[in-house]
Design a protein that fits this description.
The protein is 40% helix and 17% strand. By secondary structure, the chain is an alpha/beta fold.
Length: 373
């Protein structure tokens, strides 16, 4: 005879929440952090118990962490100094799933994975096109070797784009069965709300170009400044972001005599207000994963001109519908494509609708929950 106690025990086992440890270095203003914040906010609490583990509990996005999320601060300056703490926190919390993102942390956890039970599922989220990014490392051959040898320790690897998936297969021999492509989620409701905020700085008398990102080599803002010299005084460029190249870009602006047509506006916690009022978004990246800023610009009904550089940008841009792609890294063609976009009629409502259909939070969260289940 089956007792009620037996039935309840089976029910409780079935309903047990999966504990997921999300590993991040810190909460600065990057795309990877925004994706993790979206997962932390929207994962079904009846099914999952998310816990955030940070190398250092710092960054601009700390206030955005949901109140019910437990945060573990490893108090480490770099990932390699936190190895023993990472081992300890995984053993103490006994998670069902370990989810990590960003390169250095991914590699270290991949190396540590054999130390833990096979019952724990280890998942990495890759945030960039690895073969291109590794060329910028101090020891590119070492990084390529590590990706070939230890990345296979993960049970699954999430790529943001098919281009990134194929890069891992072709250049690092990763088994296709381990790879899952999930596009980045876009919080349409939050973007629409924040986009209504009034901001100064964009003049109605000029055609406003907008770029957003870390001021560093990857984003190619040096090329964008050069492109501005090929456009006349009707065009004004605003760049939102901070980074190590700021002084170099300021010097370049001065040297090119375009200070009256370029504004380095610094970091903004609300780029959507700028996107809502700009005329065109410009992406000059040398390589990407799946650029969140393009998705967010489209969510603000803003069309995009972008280099067709390595990464997932081409998987977002529908030529003539939500923007145009330019051969990498043809600055003259980029400038002429900006002029083309100025005179082109984009259906802005259609841009937002397509973004919502393909990248809305509800759709992407379901794909992550399917992976976690």
């Amino acid at each position: 005879m089956i007792t009620n106690t037996f039935i309840m025990n089976r029910y409780n086992v079935h309903m047990k929440r999966k504990r997921i440890l999300f590993f991040l270095p810190f909460m600065n203003g990057g795309g990877a952090e925004r994706v993790i914040l979206t997962l932390l906010k929207h994962l079904n609490r009846k099914k999952y118990e998310p816990i955030l583990v940070m190398l250092r509990k710092e960054g601009r996005y700390l206030p955005l962490i949901p109140d019910d999320i437990k945060v573990i601060d490893l108090q480490a300056t770099q990932a390699r100094y936190a190895i023993f703490k990472i081992i300890q926190v995984i053993k103490e919390t006994q998670p069902d799933i370990v989810f990590t993102t960003l390169a250095y942390l991914n590699l270290i956890i991949a190396m540590l994975r054999p130390l833990f039970s096979k019952n724990i599922i280890f998942i990495a989220r890759e945030s960039n096109t690895v073969s291109v990014r590794n060329k910028r490392e101090k020891y590119p051959r070492l990084f390529d070797w590590l990706y070939k040898k230890v990345y296979k320790n993960f049970d699954f690897i999430v790529t943001q784009a098919k281009f990134m998936r194929d890069d891992l297969i072709d250049n690092y021999g990763i088994n296709r069965d381990k790879l899952v492509t999930i596009y980045n989620p876009v919080d349409i409701e939050n973007i629409e709300k924040k986009a209504q905020q009034y901001i100064d700085g964009l003049s109605d008398d000029q055609y406003n170009l907008l770029a957003v990102g870390k001021l560093g080599y990857q984003k190619g803002f040096d090329m964008l400044l050069s492109i501005m010299t090929k456009l006349d005084e009707r065009y004004h460029l605003t760049i939102l972001g901070e980074g190590s190249d700021k002084e170099h870009l300021e010097q370049q602006i001065k040297k090119l005599h375009i200070a009256d047509r370029v504004t380095l506006a610094g970091f903004s916690d609300n780029p959507y207000a700028y996107m809502k009022r700009a005329d065109l978004f410009v992406l000059s990246s040398r390589y990407e994963g799946l650029p969140n800023v393009v998705l967010e610009a489209n969510a603000c009904e803003l069309p995009v001109v972008a280099f067709d550089s390595p990464g997932g940008t081409a998987e977002i841009i529908d030529e003539g519908m939500n923007g145009f792609l330019v051969a990498p890294f043809d600055e003259k063609e980029f400038a002429s494509t900006i002029e083309k976009a100025r005179n082109f009629h984009f259906d802005k409502e259609a841009i937002m609708i397509e973004t919502k259909e393909n990248f809305a939070i509800e759709k992407i969260i379901k794909e992550y929950e399917k992976l976690f289940t």
